[in-house]
Design brief:
The protein is an all-alpha fold. The chain has a domain at 46-123. The protein is built from 10 helices and no strands. Helix 2 packs parallel to helix 4 (90-100), helix 5 packs antiparallel against helix 6 (125-139) and helix 9 runs antiparallel to helix 10 (198-212). The radius of gyration is 29 Å and the shape is globular. It starts with a helix and ends with a helix. Mean pLDDT is 82; it is low at 33-45.
Length: 214
Amino acid sequence: MDEEISIINTNTRNEKIKNFFIKNKKKLSISIFFIILLTFSLFIYQDFKNKNKIKLAEKYNLIAINFISGDQTNVENQLVDIVMKKDITYSPLALYFLIDNNIITEKDKLNQLFDVIINGAKLEKEIKNLLIYKKGLYNSEFESENNLIKILNPIINSESRWKSHALYLMAEYFYNKNEKLKSKEFFNRIVILKNSNKKINLEAQKRLSRDFGE
């Protein structure tokens, strides 16, 4: 008896499943179609991104080779174009190339390019922090105290691996401006920082001992 009931239940369940598929055949077909379409679209998009990445790499390398060889025709515009692509690899490289080779010297223009990448590129957190630090380093030669701190605050107020670098930059900034108390404060913050870079921590201790008698 129990076996017969089990067979009936199984048949009933199978019939329900069969009826469900028959009743929802159109909806299921549409769903499957969209899943296949989405998968195919993602594949095409990834392939498109990879091809664009290769083209960008080739463009950057060609610009660098030509520049070193003495051909500086339209170099600025080409590198700025790469920056504006907001690529996580070649946009920062193009910006550094512009700075290191003094191709662009206007600070406002370079700061705008920094911001294009910092705010527009989908960078990993610490890569973004590194770029912010480099922006601070670039601006440290001419910016005011408030503006420099404003640039570096996203790192200084975080637990980033670049925090000790930013603190050291501020310590040096104030030391060079002969504001020794402020400089000492930033060196001390490096020393007590738990995840501070070991070399920077050691250098901060040396500076405190040598320049501040501690």
